[in-house]
Specification:
Strand order of the largest sheet: 1-6-5-2
Structural class: alpha/beta
Number of strands: 6
Strand content: 15-25%
């Protein structure tokens, strides 16, 4: 479901506990050292225009989804204010411009500020994001858009909110994993 190869047909340790209606989750590229530097500049150093270079790699991941809304993962307000933009939103806008799919920033909000995830364990990430999102417009299918997939905690928390409100299926795409 999460896109990680399953050697020997073993159950995935990342997505085994995800709701069955969540997925697929796909990422365009691996987060190797070169990509990591670019993503860091994109996310923290104001290089938001990199979204226009990243998005074409993500297009094949959303083409088969049909008529869906692209919904960027919202940043905490203080974090967005400090950066000046939301990198997931920039990706969604660039992806929407290529595919013609609508970008719906209004369909997902962050309920409160959450501490940064960078140094948390997978369990800590899940706890940090429990019920952190509020979803609206749950009648239309959606693909969540984010910059990096690490443990899936952010995407799973956001998707769970929609699934709890009646959406039948929620997918996700990220630039890197």
């Amino acid at each position: 479901v999460c896109g990680e190869p399953a050697p020997l047909g073993l159950e995935c340790r990342v997505c085994a506990e995800w709701p069955p209606e969540f997925g697929p989750v796909r990422s365009a590229v691996r987060l190797d050292p070169v990509v990591r530097r670019l993503v860091h500049r994109f996310k923290y150093q104001g290089w938001w225009r990199l979204a226009q270079s990243f998005a074409p790699r993500m297009v094949p991941l959303v083409r088969a989804a049909g008529d869906v809304d692209l919904v960027p993962i919202p940043l905490a307000p203080r974090r967005q204010s400090a950066r000046g933009y939301n990198q997931a939103e920039q990706l969604a806008i660039a992806l929407g411009a290529i595919t013609g799919l609508p970008v719906r920033r209004d369909r997902l909000q962050r309920r409160w500020e959450t501490p940064t995830q960078t140094r948390l364990t997978p369990e800590g990430r899940r706890a940090n994001l429990a019920e952190a999102f509020a979803a609206t417009g749950c009648h239309r299918p959606a693909i969540l858009v984010d910059d990096v997939f690490t443990t899936g905690a952010t995407l799973c928390s956001a998707a769970a909110e929609w699934l709890d409100h009646g959406t039948e299926q929620v997918g996700a795409v990220t630039f890197a994993r």
